[in-house]
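ok, trying the design again with the full structure, not the truncated one.
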């Protein structure tokens, strides 16, 4: 007969030796017995730990690794308003917004500045005719002079003023920006300080009612490479300036200072003041000093 080593395992297991009283195992059961067993995870439990998992609440990752979920995006005023330069066709809407905001300028002055291209306006997204913010500014000799800022009462405290002021300052990104504001207008003073303006001085009796004006100035700050990259990617200025998330090492270290950041009692390298020493002399002098 054939060599037993070449007989399939199922056939050899199903045969009983001659003269043996052992009952043969059915072939079907042997086939099932030699199949690999795959354990399926039970429903509602974590296969790794066996802990129960709520079906409605997905498991969260609380680790400090790189696979942490990114922070949720925070809405900014740029998500709800569009900012652009006003044209002659927008003069009527610009004047209406200035009237509602209580601007002291006449309609003829607002129309003239709009025709000259000195007005930036903000509208609600999806409704380009609803002007809710206006900023009139001049660009002279590489500087921005902000003359008037107006926000419609229906859009106040929604970030419209900051949008139009930033847009006006962006017309001359390399120059300083100046403006005057009433000394009693605490809301406007807080907004301008938040935008980066600092108080330069005061003009006594500047307004018709005798109130003083606070002269404010903003010097543009250098843009970091990270902020510039994010701006070029299409992010808003608020999103681009948002600090980067901490690395796992920074989270573990906390507020402790890294050894490389410790203040040094002596310089790390010392240059030979005589100027005549060789490379070896300079190295010995720096190491032994």
């Amino acid at each position: 007969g054939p060599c037993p080593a070449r007989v399939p395992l199922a056939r050899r297991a199903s045969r009983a030796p001659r003269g043996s009283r052992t009952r043969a195992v059915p072939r079907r059961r042997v086939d099932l017995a030699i199949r690999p067993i795959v354990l399926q995870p039970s429903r509602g439990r974590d296969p790794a730990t066996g802990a129960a998992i709520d079906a409605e609440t997905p498991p969260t990752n609380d680790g400090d690794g790189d696979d942490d979920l990114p922070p949720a995006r925070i809405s900014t005023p740029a998500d709800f308003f569009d900012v652009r330069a006003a044209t002659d066709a927008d003069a009527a809407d610009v004047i209406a917004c200035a009237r509602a905001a209580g601007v002291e300028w006449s309609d003829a002055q607002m129309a003239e500045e709009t025709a000259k291209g000195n007005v930036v306006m903000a509208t609600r997204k999806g409704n380009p005719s609803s002007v809710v913010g206006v900023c009139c500014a001049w660009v002279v000799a590489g500087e921005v002079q902000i003359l008037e800022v107006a926000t419609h009462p229906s859009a106040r405290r929604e970030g419209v003023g900051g949008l139009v002021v930033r847009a006006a300052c962006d017309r001359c990104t390399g120059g300083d920006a100046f403006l005057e504001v009433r000394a009693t207008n605490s809301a406007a003073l807080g907004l301008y300080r938040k935008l980066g303006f600092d108080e330069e001085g005061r003009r006594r009796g500047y307004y018709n009612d005798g109130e003083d004006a606070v002269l404010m100035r903003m010097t543009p700050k250098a843009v970091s490479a990270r902020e510039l990259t994010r701006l070029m990617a299409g992010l808003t200025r608020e999103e681009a300036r948002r600090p980067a998330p901490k690395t796992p090492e920074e989270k573990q270290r906390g507020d402790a200072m890294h050894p490389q950041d410790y203040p040094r009692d002596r310089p790390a390298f010392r240059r030979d003041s005589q100027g005549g020493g060789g490379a070896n002399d300079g190295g010995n002098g720096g190491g032994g000093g």
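Keeping the full-length input from now on. The longest strand covers residues 127-140.
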